[in-house]
Amino acid sequence: MTMLQIENLRTEFETPRGTVTAVNGVDLHIDNGEIVGLVGESGSGKSVLAQSVMRLVEDPGEITADELLFKGEPLLEKSEAEMTTIRGNEISMVFQDPMNSLNPTITVGEQIAETVRLHQDIGESISLPAEMKRKIIGASKASESWRRAIEMLESVQIPHPESRATDYPHEFSGGMRQRAMIAIALSCEPDLLIADEPTTALDVTIQAQILEELHSILEVFDTSILLITHDLAVVAETCDRVNVMYAGEMVERATTRELFSNPQHPYTQALLASTPQVETAVEELEPIPGTVPEPIDIPYACHFAPRCPEAKEECFEVDPAFRRVGSEDHEAACIRREPVDGEVIENE
Amino acid sequence: MKKYIAKRVLNALFVVWLVATVVFFGLRAIPGGPVRTMLGAEATEEAVNRMRAELGLDQPLYVQYVEWMIDLVTFDLGQSLTSGEQISVMMASAVPRTLSIALIGVVVGLGIALPTGIISATRKGQRSDYVATVAAFLGLSMPAFFIGILLALVFGVWWGVLPIVGYAPLQEDGIVEWFRRILLPGISVGVPYAAVVMRMTRSSLLEVLDAEYMRTAKAKGVGRTTRLYKHAMQNALIPVVTVAGIQIALVLVGSVTVELVFGIQGIGRLLVDAILDRNYPVTQAVILLVASIMVFMNLSVDIIYTFLDPRIRYGDEAS
What we know:
The structure holds 2 protein chains of 2 kinds.
Chain A lengths: L1 E14 L2 E14 L3 E5 L6 H8 L7 E4 L2 E4 L2 E2 L5 H7 L4 E4 L13 H12 L8 H10 L6 H12 L5 H4 L9 H13 L5 E5 L7 H18 L2 E6 L2 H7 L2 E6 L2 E7 H6 L4 H8 L48 E3 L6 E2 L11 E2 L3
Helix pairs in contact in A: 3-5, 3-7, 5-7, 7-8
Chain B lengths: L1 H28 L4 H6 L5 H11 L5 H13 L13 H36 L4 H15 L2 H15 L11 H40 L2 H9 L3 H23 L1 H14 L5 H10 L3 H29 L11
Helix pairs in contact in B: 1-13, 5-6, 5-8, 5-11, 6-8, 7-8, 7-11, 8-10, 8-11, 9-10, 10-13, 11-12, 12-13
């Protein structure tokens, strides 16, 4: 069954300088129990895509899509009240910067317990007065939600969870804070976890631990994961399938194995060439010249064309539709690649 | 925490001493002494000298300074040069008046500032935000005494619903009369204060609403109102407390002129008269009092911080 089905999703921001199209007609799907990677440089629209799925995009952001189905239900048709019952419960999110993603004035335990209380029927009031009382005089250590919070801290390997639950975020290290974020995200056993660069702000040894954590979660809770990263090593290690995004558009998608062994889109190739690899350490790294264009009225058809070593005149004029370029649903959006089955997949 | 407070109190005493010293010498550097002011320009040299000797002003400056310091340590504020009245008695009558005005000013100020700041921040760019912003700038750009004159005109002269002159002591005339007398002066000093605090509340809350942990709260499924009051407010109040505490000075300064408008014999009135008369001991005493209030407010702000921000722990507690 499909957990998340996205077709032609656009997220636009009306600004005084023009319409910023952060996500420009993107398709994406995630099956049950899958880990799907979303890679791209900074500014490619990965995070906006993730936030669009949960409808976290703030004004003046505008989300439209032909389809945005979560477990078959159209998310864009939900009311804000319905969304609050989905957020943190059925879909949850881990953010990039664990230093600033936790509230500095609420204990870690309460930040987890709150999520439990919001979404699980454990008979604890979530009215504003009740929540303010917990905030000011502290949450009850005997409550079911607090017990669950400690359980969650334990399951993400926080030592002495009973005492650490009463700590404030500043008393946690960066890695521990990200574990706490994961504990919040998993406290209601979501069906889909969106992890937006969960390891970028952490050092390498902690990164490995967090990734392992994500892996074990999948086994325990049967959660699908959308893993957003610019780190191809993380993708290679973790994901079943990969989507490559550039300047608001999807450019290539394939299984992880296929993508790394047979990258087709020039952007993916350039991305791989600019990533250090142990086996081929002799060669020099090749940076991609130029930067990601600002997504305001990009005048050329293929957004990567100005930086592309293979670009020809028609690349600037003809929209690059997806085509099969390898085995197992390996597709790339580049007119310079001959489709293996001779067919160009129409979008829009 | 105790250690910290002890340290801060010592520090405060030092600041108060410094203010006292600066005021002492600063006052005497102003041309024209109290005797000349009292006796007038026609007084003979002999009369002036006799008066100076009587008041002890003929002694060397350092002797006067040391004597005043000794008096201060024994809580003796001395006597007024002009009336001979005990300054402590003058203060006992003036201080409650000014504090009453300041109290109403702060209550009215915060009562206006916090709700409008919150509305303004949560409806940024909407009509209510613009209205609040324009009102705040109006409040900021009008001095307290001018607001006092307007209020006196509207409520006292046109509508005649409130008295506009004098003060009614709480113990003698009861709370209703007391309140009726200080309401207008209180609002007058409260409006500029409200404007400053409102602007701070707005910008601080806007910053917090934009913080990543607020996005986390939304992603957890926390509703809008709970996000605002449980997740944002405490963080937003930290800088507001600083401004609200320090700007009490604005209320006290405003009170000086507002007391003149409403004919209330508070410390503002006392100070203005004392400076005009070159009445050294009274001027010194009043400025010392105001300085002490400010130092105390600063200390209070720092202590309130520890309740608002769990990251701040002072002194001997583990960090």
